[in-house]
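Schema walk-through. Below, the input block comes first and the output block second. Nothing else is stored per chain. Lengths vary across the set, and this one has 403 residues.
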Amino acid sequence: MNPLLDLLNPYPFERLNDLLANVKPSEAHAPIALSLGEPKHAAPPFLVEAYRDPATVIKGFGTYPPTRGIPELRRAIAEFVGRRYQLTQGLDPETQVLPVNGTREALFAFAQAVIDPTRPGITLMPNPFYQIYEGAAILAGSKPAFVPCLVDNDFNPDFSTVPESIWRDCQLLYICSPGNPTGAIMGVDEMQWLIRKSDEFGFVIASDECYSEIYEDESSPPPGILQAASMMGRHDMKNCIAFNSLSKRSNLPGLRSGYVCGDAAIIEKFLLYRTYHGSAMPVHNQIVSAAAWSDEEHVMKNRAIYRRKFDAVMEILENVWPMQRPSGAFYLWPETPVDDCDFTRKLIETVNIKVVPGSYLSRDVNGTNPGANHVRMALVATLEECVSAAERLKQFMQESKYR
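--- output ---
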């Protein structure tokens, strides 16, 4: 067996199951899970109808799917990215766009293609972070290095604290904006600073933008790495790769559909890797995906639902458990009045609400875990269920005298 497998850390939800294994949930309350970031809004009806179309299904079932993706999907993605990020020169759908089976699969596979295991290498990532980044780096033969996301920097990673010795060995940098679990949004200036660093040290930037279409201010969508590059006049997107999917944007987590786009030279090599990897998206999924990327109305309605949930939950909790409203994504990242693991167990016992301890989403660095004494709560359920959870949390905080 690959000995690097032994270096992988348990996944956060595996740890959560162990933490709660001997906890008896409150029988007075129906369970509410705020733990998993799985969208629960209904899939857009027009996409469901498209998926039921017999001609689409027959076409998908009757052919091996092209790894490069069908032209209609690559064009739809290129047009979405150009429109959404106001690119002054559009992406070439033939060379700069590659459909993938969701961002999770692609973010992991990307490290295997990009990292050179024959020389010392470091993969930089935020802390807390999406654990796929760490696992991808380890199995590619790279050493993960973590940049804390602290309140002093609005929960964005402060890359100015990274020493030059780390930058010299860095081969791959993962960023995530809006961030998981904090919802923090990186600015264009920060992204352009990283692009200049990549020029200096030659690493690749993998920008996880899967929460890009869930944000607070309708007039100010979160910027992306390709937008930052375009504003610098870098239309070749050198060393810049963006990842996104339809899971959060269109409430289609089960479709397993996303994209990778940017630097054509990197896309070419990643396509070669994926040709051997055998990860082509079924054609009927590609046809439906093209329709999803081409429509914005359902995305705007989706954002409005999340805003209503944040409005309701924050109003209920503001006087008993103050917390920062995120700029993007669908998570709350509040501080806990006691140890985050103890707090998580007590929530199940008392009000039957499941959350994720923040320390499970982070790594200890020099004795400090930036996720400690936080919990992640995903407002993915219905408005009614989120309101019910907030009412229970309010009662819990009051009766536990945590104020």
